[in-house]
Amino acid sequence: MIVIETANELAMRPWILIVEDVPTERTILREILSGEYEVMEATNGKEALKLIQEYGESFAMVIMDIAMPEMGGLEVLNVMREDGVSGALPVCLVTASNDETIMLEAHSLGVADIIIKPVNPLILLHRVKNLIALYSYRMDIEIALREQRELLELQQQRALNHNRFMIDALATAVEYRSLESGEHMQRVKELTRFFLNRLSVRGRCFLTGDEIDTAAEASVLHDIGKISISDTILMKPGRLTAEEYDIMKQHTTKGAEMLERVRVDDSQYYAFCCDIARSHHERWDGTGYPDGLIGDATPIWAQAAALADVYDALTNERVYKPKYSHEESIRMIIQGECGVFNPDLLECLEQDAELLRDFRK
Fold this sequence. Notes:
Helix content is 56%, strand content 7%. The chain is of the alpha/beta class and 361 residues long. The chain folds into two domains: 7-147, Rossmann fold; 178-359, Hypothetical protein af1432 (Orthogonal Bundle), CATH 1.10.3210. A five-stranded parallel beta sheet has the order 2-1-3-4-5, sandwiched between helices. It is elongated. The model is unreliable at 1-11 (pLDDT under 50).
């Protein structure tokens, strides 16, 4: 039998759920507790679970017998633990048994207290009062900690957004100085992410999703070293002389040096930034610069950024070249007209060409 009116009639005093199949025992518990608490009753574990599911947040505590028909107290505790309820709602078991095995099982299931029958009214009231206060205090602490954690996460996100804004602004300034649209670095970022994700799908790249995102963010600064290159070379509309080209190539080492000088920690992000700035002109066969690295001696994130940089440069107009179509750009890269790239990356470029086209829309 469930004794309850409506949820709107819940009083300001704490509510306690009594779960007991024996009417006289239930009456004794109700008489002990009703002077200080509002009492709700259930005759077995199934009824108790229904009430906990419906009014769980309104209960300050559950006092429950162990041995009951249909569903006993230990079974209820097990369900509450599986549902994640037991940590927030204290349960006190009352039993006539001194079986240590049962008590150990109850404690392993998260019981707050065990009282042996016959129940001493004063002891019961003191235990109930202390348990409610303890759980209430613990919940207050958990709420305060959660709020503090959420605040810290919000502050970290704001700081991250601020840093990203400053980095994007710096990278965009470099591009405008090169008479580019200012969108190249954003496209390189997304293309780097695209190529690394496609490698990952094929099992050719073992970076985690977070590491791929970090590498993509780091690719924004791939051309930061162009700040050190003179305008006459950087903005020259025609082909560079051999001497000018040698100077232009220095933007890779200059960029890495700049980033190393402002490094504030040893985070993965800074490592990716330096790798990409220095090595995004390396090529698979060792014909790239500045170090002539061969194969996977160039980190995969720098290889992906290199392909992203070349593809975007081909498919967009520059002061020194016209814009090529998606198909023509892929053909030129596959045939090695822009240097030799990682075969796995070329496979992604060729086989995922349509995905790449849709991706760029």
